[in-house]
């Protein structure tokens, strides 16, 4: 057992510790000194501040709720790797909601960022329906943006279009319900906690955390355009800080372009990846002394134009030979594209997740602390449904272009250096199922000449727009949505924009506002919003058909079409003509009943002479800090716990408090220091292993026990208890 902690302090460390103590004392004294005059100042100012505010303040509410869903057997959404099925939990998933209302409550907008792969149309339709039944016309299609962080380690199964049903093993109701309920609950909490408050915006660069994973595509953009930027990724993070009128910190939203794929496609533990780790660090710091997932401060790290942006900053290498495969085809001399993978910067994927997450957290914290540019001014929200198969784009004075019926190109199947070998079409184990036979037959259908022509130069692998059995394969009716909160504009984008696509869209929205006399708008792109339509590249990037181009499903003019549509929304806001916007055709709601290839949950069984929760493999009596305490129990299928919102955690780590004689819960399963692994045995038997990765800090010395919490298929809850063990220094 390797002890990762240093057990002796070097001279340098002693000096640093002494300095730290001294600095802390000095800081405290300064704070006290600062605080006294400030207090009288603010009380003196309060009436004028509050008064000025009546027009200036908003009403603000923040909320967070669990949306984890089933953590066993369900495919994880993102890599579409059929072998990547959940087998436990590393961190819980949360929906984070933010409501901003005009001071007189005449208008409000809602922004939600959820720790899931992406929003789906099905999720959005169900959330909006629930909100309508609870709140009437307060929260609607028009003023609610739902965005996914794009973690690739969250359960799949909440889609209604066939292509996603395929990679999700169907529509998995427990997955869908957990997310719908989590999102609605986070909005409920934000709604109940609305208070008068202020908004501040700040921006800064995050270094050493991203690379462009399709640099060859990026290079296709005109040189004059590329020369305007210093990097082939957007390094800017935008932070929106929320405080109440007394200065109490409520929360923040950060937007930054990065794929949460620090965890690779071999990971089986449900978690929120690098951006989720950043939220965790921020919320743990602000909700001091509470378990993760508790406390009123809410920190969302939302997605943006991350289409071609990878966190695996060591770059692509051939895993067999070690040489770089940073070439136009991400191809290795031996083994081809399947061998070309990117990783880093850590020693393993969890380490990499934490390094990138920490970078995001530290920058956001700095921007949050220093934010001083206040956002004031009215709220506006616009929303349209658009049939993206049929948008005519005015390219210039003489030429128009047209979007196409959805189709995926060949490179789609190749995946990316963040996750190769995207899709396995020959799912032999699924034969005999009528559903899958229909799909097989449908797959033989050839794309029409019109679709082929429209998508050129994309060679079509799947003409998804022309297949509708058993359900349409891809959405055609897509949400475009734009909010403004004073000088902040939030463009809700229904997919993944590449770096340059995002820059063009932001610029177009900003210049549209300017052309109607509104200067200086701060435009942010919120990614993975409302409905998933894969990627959007620039026209130039599309020509070389790497993964992102092949996944631009509405053809070469997709970006131009979106720019035209978002300009239209900006114009409506700037010219006060929102009411004239066409609503567009409503998306379909598909009645998909129990279409799932997920195995049923067998009745759970305990081994002979054992019962649920019995210890199978005990902890040791003693661990040093930096080691991993682990214990294995007789388990039950965690899917039984998926929809029970009162079931808060699969595990606790408790410490014995010597003075009070009580056991105190130090950790739950939302902690990034704990892991819960579930493995299925034969005939309903299963094992649950709990790991506690003991941090290298002195305050952890003492006596502990570990407990798992589960439910058996017959719906009785049980827990287990490990022996007591001691954590020591040596
Ligand atoms: C606050 O502002 C309003 C107008 O916005 C004004 O009518 C009122 O007199 C002000 N109150 C105080 C206490 O200054
Ligand atoms: C939200 O408001 C409710 C009352 O409506 C209160 O009980 C709760 O503590 C508040 N929650 C937070 C996180 O502030
Ligand atoms: C995923 O990361 C682990 C390290 O955590 C590494 O051993 C493995 O090779 C990686 N797999 C892929 C497919 O990148
Ligand atoms: C496509 O849209 C145009 C208007 O932009 C409309 O005239 C036409 O009928 C639509 N075509 C189809 C097939 O829906
Ligand atoms: C969208 O437009 C296409 C092409 O104009 C048309 O064939 C299709 O039926 C429309 N889709 C929906 C869902 O209305
Ligand atoms: C308009 O766009 C088309 C297609 O991109 C191009 O061929 C043509 O040269 C452009 N015309 C002008 C005047 O820019
Ligand atoms: C595709 O799936 C089949 C059946 O599950 C399996 O035998 C085959 O190895 C898979 N191929 C790839 C490339 O993963
Ligand atoms: C499609 O194009 C091919 C080759 O250009 C032609 O032979 C065929 O007749 C066309 N099909 C239709 C339905 O127009
Ligand atoms: C699936 O649907 C069929 C028919 O609609 C119904 O009889 C059956 O009970 C359903 N099964 C489950 C597990 O919901
Ligand atoms: C179960 O326990 C009983 C009574 O203690 C014992 O006689 C029997 O051998 C045990 N069976 C097994 C399989 O351990
Ligand atoms: C949810 O779980 C809790 C504790 O595990 C249990 O007491 C409760 O009965 C469960 N509720 C439902 C609806 O299953
Ligand atoms: C608790 O207190 C007893 C008596 O003072 C001491 O012997 C024991 O080592 C303490 N345990 C821990 C975990 O500190």
Automatic annotation (TrEMBL):
List, for all copies, the residue spans of the domain called Neutral/alkaline non-lysosomal ceramidase N-terminal: 58-564
Q: Which residues form the Neutral/alkaline non-lysosomal ceramidase C-terminal domain?
A: 566-727
Q: Which residues bind Zn(2+)?
A: 150, 259, 496, 535
Residue intervals passing through the bilayer: 12-36
Record's GO cellular component terms: caveola; extracellular space; mitochondrion
Q: Family assignment? A: Belongs to the neutral ceramidase family.
Record PANTHER family: CERAMIDASE, NEUTRAL CERAMIDASE
- Which species is the source of this protein? Pelodiscus sinensis
List the catalytic activities from the record.
an N-acylsphing-4-enine + H2O = sphing-4-enine + a fatty acid
Task: Extract one GO molecular function annotation from the record.
Answer: metal ion binding
Report keywords, A-Z. Hydrolase, Lipid metabolism, Membrane, Metal-binding, Sphingolipid metabolism, Transmembrane, Transmembrane helix, Zinc
Taxonomic placement: Eukaryota, Metazoa, Chordata, Craniata, Vertebrata
Q: Which protein is depicted?
A: Neutral ceramidase
Q: Which cofactor does it need?
A: Zn(2+)
The cofactor binding remark recorded in the entry reads:
Binds 1 zinc ion per subunit.
Recorded hits in InterPro entries, A to Z, give: Ceramidase_alk, NCDase_C_sf, NEUT/ALK_ceramidase_C, NEUT/ALK_ceramidase_N
EC number(s) given by UniProt: 3.5.1.23
Give GO BP annotations, semicolon-separated.
ceramide biosynthetic process; ceramide catabolic process; lipid digestion; long-chain fatty acid biosynthetic process; sphingosine biosynthetic process
Q: Which Pfam families did the record assign?
A: Ceramidase_alk, Ceramidse_alk_C
